[in-house]
Amino acid sequence: MRWASPAQFRGLLCAHLAILNKNRRPLRRFGTVMSLHGKVAASHSTDFQPSRPADGGSILEAAVRVLTAQSATEKATLTHQTADMWRDRRLQCSILPDSTPEVPDRPGRDDCVRLVDPRKMKSPGKGNTLQSRQRLVHSLVHIESWAVDLSWDIIARFGADPSYQLPQEFFDDFVRVAEDECRHHEMLRERLEEMGSFYGAFPAHDALWDSAAATAHSLPARLAIEHCTHEARGLDVMPSTVAKFRVNGDEMTAKLLEDVIYKEEITHCAAGVRWLKHLHSLAHESQELASSASPTQDPITDPGTASASEAGVPWMEEARQFPKVELWFHALVKKYFKGSLKPPFNTVGRAQAGFGEEWYMPIAAASGSSAAASDGAGPSQQRPGLTNPAPVPASRCLIGAGL
Ligand SMILES: [Fe+2]
Ligand SMILES: [Fe+2]
């Protein structure tokens, strides 16, 4: 008798789970997918039922529960439950007394997927064979699973920091993004199975988490890199990705990407822009309040002035160096993003997200190999040679697919 290798065993297990998943209850809120597929799509989240967050609990603690869940199935169940409870206002956007949730350095992950070095990832190709299209969808399934974790991580990691003064709308936005990403993962996973494959059939890499780890200390850095750079890059490549399926006769996948996922990704990029603007305004408005306060006013006891703590908050001091939020964004990209922003850009999709050319053209690569520094420089004043003290790897698949 010959024993299966660990990789073979993992593949057999994933294939077995894929077969089991054929008998699942219908997905909620999947009207578009139902019409796209001409049948009821099915959920990946019924075989496992983790305990739901408690009524009246904290959205931050609920976010940590998703992050620490080990499988995509468990994360999906918790994501839908938590989003439902948030919409019903059965969770609160503060931490509860005596319970500071510990955000994991790295989320729990599905061990169905064999991980490889990003540099050793085989290109999925142009979509002109079934396996190439399966590889393309598989990489998207994996990226969307990371996008779920990233959405909860931004809530759990930064939601309780008083210096950001995050209102309920911030949590509304990223709970919605988390649920969108979860549906994207489930829809693409369903599509992958319809194509005769399954999640775990191909290797994947986790480079996307590297950019999250490099921005784990700073909400503005996280917003700039994940939501205003990677999400925007996803908009850039979506038309060519759709074309790979359409020209090769896979209209089903093309429509799923074009009619559902692309439109929602625009709103994710918009959320990044919205909250980076919020932080920039907050830093400048608190400075103006402080400078206009009477010398006799106490910044701690008088709520009309900037607090003593705001005066020494590093991210605020950094933001105040830039009169425009776009210039702050350029500096954040220069500091935390390795590589360059390469054209062609999807100017229409980016504009729909509120991400006009002034945000990215000054730091766009003049060629395919260099980027222009931008602090205070306009598009006509591009300078080559970005230096990057804390780089985030810009892997091929990460950049090529967005979130
Ligand atoms: Fe997505
Ligand atoms: Fe997204």
From TrEMBL:
CDD domains per record: Ferritin_like
Highest taxon in the source lineage: Eukaryota
Bias-annotated ranges (Polar residues): 288-308
Region (Disordered): 287-310, 370-393
Pfam families linked: DUF455
Entries under SUPFAM superfamilies matching the protein: Ferritin-like (SSF47240)
Protein name: DUF455-domain-containing protein
Source organism of the structure: Coccomyxa viridis
